[in-house]
Write a structure and sequence with these properties.
alpha+beta; Endonuclease I-creI; four-stranded antiparallel beta sheet; three-stranded antiparallel beta sheet; globular
């Protein structure tokens, strides 16, 4: 089914190349099967963690993107369309973009562990408490190399840069995505893995660096060429 975007026509080509290349790159050795769910999880924001709640601001919320990340939001939207996943895409201009989907939330819930969070209470509903949960990724769910590599592909597009054969992933206040990426890198036998955490900054900065083995390098060199860019909010 063709992928369409009213705002960024290049995304049609991007999605086609991404999915084709993901399946072709290691197909010659029958070693890799692209996992679209794990790829999309890699794309999700984890600033201060993901919250599950029936509060209207959080109900069925899959992802939030800053206005400068509109290309990433559209990539997620077009990927959901490609897989016929019902969703709501709301672009609020400089306030950012919110993507909601009950269907996709149900699809990925097994990848997360729920921890009870303080009930959400807002000034507009002082007498109402909404039971809420922090969702933390469970590394044990990424139990195959296919899932790990697909997750890392999405993670690279959202958080990464590639300098020669070194990948650098940069997070802010990540509750579990950062740690999952670290464990995925170890499972994939990346080289010279290095964690750098700066807790004396606001927000806290978390960085992960590692060297890609040759059998993975071609994948990420290709993704680097078609990686969406941040844009001006004006």
């Amino acid at each position: 089914m063709p992928v369409r975007s009213r705002y960024h026509p290049f995304l049609k080509k991007f999605i086609f190349i991404l999915y084709f290349f993901a399946n072709w790159s290691l197909a010659q050795t029958n070693e890799f099967k692209f996992d679209s769910t794990c790829f999309l999880i890699g794309l999700l924001n984890d600033y201060n963690g993901r919250i599950e709640s029936n509060h209207p601001d959080f109900k069925d919320k899959v992802a939030y993107f800053f206005c400068s990340e509109r290309n990433f939001a559209l990539l997620l939207q077009d990927s959901l369309k490609r897989h016929s996943i019902q969703h709501e895409y709301k672009d609020e201009g400089r306030a950012g973009i919110v993507v909601r989907s009950r269907q996709f939330s149900n699809m990925i819930q097994n990848f997360y562990k729920k921890e009870r969070y303080e009930p959400l209470v807002f000034e507009t509903d002082v007498d109402i408490e909404y039971p809420s949960y922090i969702l933390r990724l469970e590394f044990s769910k990424f139990d195959t190399r296919d899932k790990c590599l697909s997750f890392l592909m999405g993670t690279f597009l959202k958080y990464g840069v590639l300098k020669n054969d070194k990948m650098i992933l940069t997070y802010a206040n990540s509750m579990s995505h950062y740690e999952t990426a670290y464990r995925v890198a170890k499972r994939l036998k990346m080289k010279k893995i290095r964690k750098i955490i700066s807790n004396n900054t606001v927000p806290a900065k978390q960085q992960l660096e590692f060297i890609l083995p040759q059998n993975y390098l071609a994948i990420f060199e290709h993704l680097k060429k078609i990686k969406p860019l941040n844009i001006s909010c004006n």
